[in-house]
Amino acid sequence: MGEGLRFQCQPGCTACCEQKGYVYLTEADLVRAATFAGMTARAFERKYVYRTAKQLRLRVPRQAQCHFLRDGGCSIHPAKPTQCRIFPFWPEQVESKQEWKKTAQYCPGMGQGPLIQIELAREQAREMREAYPEQYR
User: Fold this and answer.
1) Which end of the chain, N or C, is less packed with Cβ atoms under 10 Å?
2) Where are the alpha helices (DSSP H) in 8-134?
3) Could you report how far apart the first and last alpha carbons of the chain are, in Å?
4) How large is the C-alpha radius of gyration of the chain?
């Protein structure tokens, strides 16, 4: 993927949040989001989270892609899940020029801003792999 990638979130953009798919959580994500929302982890999970034996994910509401997506952006931005925080430096994007370009078709921040050293992008991708081992075997 060369020596670096350019990425900078664009003001007001929520394109990544509007894509179909699930937002997976770590246990730490659950606690952090619940605390930010002023709820216990148990109450937050009951209201917003779907848990299986192997993973946690945010429930997808009927009328939107995410409960926390507002016109102004993410309503839990300071406590957003690891998956959201690391985007677009997910392993599949960092490891494949083709996937990076595919994602850039809907993400206007890709190719913008300062050059991100590839090792920093790979570090973020490693964090993603460690946070969600069920998805990256």
Assistant:
1) C
2) 27-36, 41-48, 82-86, 91-94, 97-104, 118-131
3) 22
4) 15
Strands 24-25 and 49-51 come out as unpaired
Tell me the CA distances in angstroms from 63 to 33, 69, 70, 105, 136, one per residue in order. Answer: 21, 11, 12, 24, 30
| Whether residue 102 is found in the same domain as residue 121 | yes
Q: What was the pLDDT predicted at 34?
A: 98
Mean pLDDT by 10 residues, the chain (137 residues): 79 92 96 98 98 94 90 92 96 94 96 92 95 88
Q: Are 14 and 60 in contact (CB under 8 A)?
A: no
- 113 lies in some domain: yes
Total domains in the fold of the chain? 2
Phi/psi-derived region of residue 54, left when phi > 0, alpha when psi is between -120 and 50, beta in every other case: alpha
| 84 SS3 class | helix
Domain that holds residue 39: 21-70
Residue 99 lies in a domain: yes
Q: At what angle do helices 41-48 and 27-36 cross, to 10 degrees?
A: 100
